[in-house]
Amino acid sequence: MATNAVNEFNQQVKPVSLWADAWKRLRKNRMSLFGLWVVGIYFLVALAAPILPLYDYTEQNLNHVNLPPSLKPAGVVAVAQEQKAIDQITDLVKNQGRADLQPNLDQKIAEMAQLQASLAADPTSNNVYIFGTDYLGRDMLSRVIYGGRISMMIGLVGTITAVLVGIIIGAIAGYAGGRLDNFLMRFVDIMYGLPYMLIVIILMSMVPQGTNSTVVLFVAIALVSWLTIARVVRGQIISLKNSEFVEAARSMGAGTGRIIFRHLLPNTLGVIIIFSTLQMPSFIMNESFLSFLGLGVSAPAASWGTLVSEGVQGMELYPWRLLVPAIAMTLFLFAMNFLGDGLRDALDPQSKNRA
Amino acid sequence: MMKFIIRRLLSLIPTMFIIITLSFFLIHIAPGGPFSGEKKLPPHVLANILKKYHMDEPLGAQYLRYLNDVILHFDLGPSYRYEDQSVNGLISATMPRSIFLGFVSLLLSVALGGAAGIISALRQNKWQDYLSMSVAVIGISVPLFVIGPVIQLIFAMQLHWLPVTGWINSRAGWVTLIMPAVTLAFPYFAYIARLSRGSVLEVLRSDYIRTARAKGLKESVVIGKHVLKGAMLPVVSYLGPAFAGIITGSIVVETVFQIPGVGRIFVQSALNRDYTLIMGDIITYSAVLVFANFLVDVIYGFLDPRIAYK
Amino acid sequence: MTEEIILQVQDLKTYFHTDEGIVKAVDGVTFDLHKGETLGIVGESGSGKSVTNLSIINMIPNPPGKIAGGQVMYAGKDLVKLTINELRSIRGNKISMIFQDPMTSLNPYLRISTQMIETIVLHQKLDKKTAKAKAIDMLKLAGIPAPEKRIDQYPHQFSGGMRQRVMIAMGLSCNPEILIADEPTSALDVTIQAQILDLIKDLTARLGTAVILITHSLGVVAGMCDTICVMYAGRIVERGPTTEIFDKPKHPYTQGLIKSVPRLDKTSGDRLYSIRGQPPNVIDLPDCCPFYPRCDKAMDVCKRKYPLSKDVGNGHAVSCWLYTEAK
Ligand SMILES: Nc1ncnc2c1ncn2[C@@H]1O[C@H](COP(=O)(O)OP(=O)(O)OP(=O)(O)O)[C@@H](O)[C@H]1O
Ligand SMILES: [Mg+2]
What we know:
The complex is a heterotrimer. Chain A is 70% helix and 0% strand. Chain A is an all-alpha fold. Chain A has two domains: 18-55 and 138-351, MetI-like fold (Orthogonal Bundle); 70-126. In chain A, helix 9 packs antiparallel against helix 11. The longest helix of chain A is centred in the last third of the chain and has 38 residues, at 256-293. Residues 351-355 of chain A have low confidence and may be disordered. The N and C termini of chain B lie close together (9 Å). Chain B has a domain at 87-204 and 232-309: MetI-like (MetI-like fold). Chain B has 13 helices and no strands. Chain B is flat, with a radius of gyration of 24 Å. The mean pLDDT of chain B is 83. Chain C has helices spanning 49-56, 84-90, 102-105, 112-124, 128-141, 147-150, 160-172, 190-207, 218-224, 242-247, 252-259; strands at 5-18, 21-34, 38-42, 65-74, 77-78, 95-98, 178-182, 210-215, 227-232, 235-241, 310-311, 317-318. Chain C has an eight-stranded mixed beta sheet, sandwiched between helices. Chain C folds into two domains: 5-94 and 176-318, 3-Layer(aba) Sandwich (Rossmann fold); 105-175, no CATH class. In chain C, helix 5 (128-141) packs across helix 7 (160-172). The interface between A and B is large, with 46 and 55 residues. The complex binds adenosine-5'-triphosphate and magnesium ion (MG). Residues 49-50, 182 of chain C line the site of magnesium ion (MG).
């Protein structure tokens, strides 16, 4: 049948595979294709970061503090920055009658000489910081990439944990039914009523100072995020439980666990994939949210949230320190959301356009 | 209906009880306490302090004492860190601002998000639809703590239209409310716009709308009388989660805009391990949320005739 | 039934423009409806019955659908060309519709009274109170017990059969000339199906309303209809008076349908006949008889061209090469 792709009326008889069909629909959706590309590139860069020609993201260089993004070598940019400051003060002193600033000017000029001397001796003056540097002279490009690694890893691990816990609990509740189901769902209801980020905040505050808070963060975020997936899986399983093919499997003597994993889960896979792609950006946001408040990953590691929160400190004078991580993060979240929306439309066309 | 309300109201009790218990034990199994921080206290001083706060008693006794204080006296105890301040005092001084900010943001997001969603659905695939859905995608993808600083950078630091930070007072007036409320409302505006667009489209495809059209009703009547009520129900049931999100988000917004609300106290208490304050915050937040969810359920019950008769 | 024609559908074509291609859901449908007549449209799922009838009152969702050609003449006007306002004064007033699924066809958030009264007020220009009295009368006619009480309830307080009665009462509340019932009983229990059909038959006979009854089942049309149209893949392949169709079916498809109706007078134990194969999908269908792959009497010409309709007498017409001379 598969080779015979045309029927009596010369019409295409297409193989009806859910996945092939979904892929076809996804390919037509330009925004989600764009999302797929961007997400792919981000993951590639994050994976390859150690072998990419990047400056060390922890290396501080006090000669290169707060340099704006530029394609020129750091030495040149630093001198230009200093010169701009000198020009400004000179202008104030000469044209605006602020003679009282003369000492400042002298000091600046002395600093300039010093800077030039130390730059000449410093081999790193030839470094190029296309995204500028932060308040400790660290390369923003490499910080954003390594920050992204952490954020994406938290998103990924958090999603996987939440999905696994959710699947197991949802499957148990849906399959067992009765009292156990009642109990579990009541528990889920109560958990739903809780402000879950607040619980994560408590958990984070309990971490003893000095421990690796990243791991705790994974666990904390994941532990409170399995609720939705548990509900979805339970619902799907209940609706599938009585369908014919499960009856058939059971009549052939398949055990409960086997039925769940062989027959029921593949049927809920679509929903789980959609949920995961939409959940990952929300994990990344939540992690960044905590890091922004100072409750997230601890230094020297940095996530996008840490970088944004550092950037906010000097945003009036050095806006790139805020904008570079903010744009990097936003672009990724955009892409994930487009991809998630596209996957939902492709895998589950009935729920089209749902928020 | 009355029965439904009472039953729903009674179900709040175990929820609150679980929240109190959970947060109490979570906090007390945590390694390290508020007084095991940076500076080492001399043992006898520490013993005195522990005694003062009844922290030398067994955990069970502390728990019962706490339950008794909270449930019977609405007393959340003293703050460990802010000396001579009670948790009740700290929270009641700051909570109203946060709730007010949250409420304004919720109203903003429902009104604008609902309108944008309905217009998008009615003008599907026209420029109105593309415009509002693009804005919505921004709202969903860009975190609060990016939106906040960025609009601060633009509207306060560059354009000088609005004050950078601060909260409503006699001098600055109400303008200080604008940026925090807009920032906080934005993500929920986005969700609600997408949600209501989707549900209007779904209702438009439903059989009963086909019936309404087949009766010869004007399109405006079909939309206004037959579509909107059903389409807005998902938005109503989203109000609970939205309010929870807004409450959480207000922590960031209060930090960014330096608003003396309960969110900042909460973050401070978490950073300081001020346990009574953390618990007090959690319990108050939860009470607000649980009550908000209850209100949402009641509103839903009024709107959907199928609920009331169950 | 009189000879006066009140609705004339001519060469109606409704196409859907989808990603897969053009779906010719209705492709050249022609029939007449006489005053007070009950006309049955029978066909398999997907043959275009619903689309035909939605096209009559111009309620095809656009996009993707579009009436691509043909006429629907009613009261001297072509409904296809009317403005939306003119159409609205006909919908629910002169021509009303009942749909398949009574569970979802009533608005769950509005009281029955609201939904019935709005139609009556709109078309009959009555005040609300009179309209409500009229609505209660209609519910009583439709066999709803205690209508004065039940009218203020919500749809979910009614059973499926009751809701269909409400739909019928609502559909007939403005004394329409034509009632289109799209599979009014398919979603109901077998026991209730007969009651609902009887109700439609009874009420429309009393009010002199012409009915277009859409159904899958020949059994239903046999008992109800004066005339039958058999639809296949967007076309009417055979039409004629009920007795003619049942006694002298011409089209092989109609013959197959009749053979597959379970009958009490046939010797039991025989396996029920069923037409082999599947109905075609109607995307980009070439110009041939769409039934030929399933037809026992298929000839070469069937694959090349669709046969014109041929009148075989007694108001009986068929589109099949067996009865038409190939050029
Ligand atoms: N909105 C639409 N978009 C695309 N195709 C459509 C649409 N509505 C109907 N069709 C197609 O038109 C064809 C005829 O559909 P229609 O609903 O008229 O069939 P039917 O005879 O009423 O079937 P049933 O007995 O199942 O109700 C089908 O192939 C269907 O797929
Ligand atoms: Mg149909």
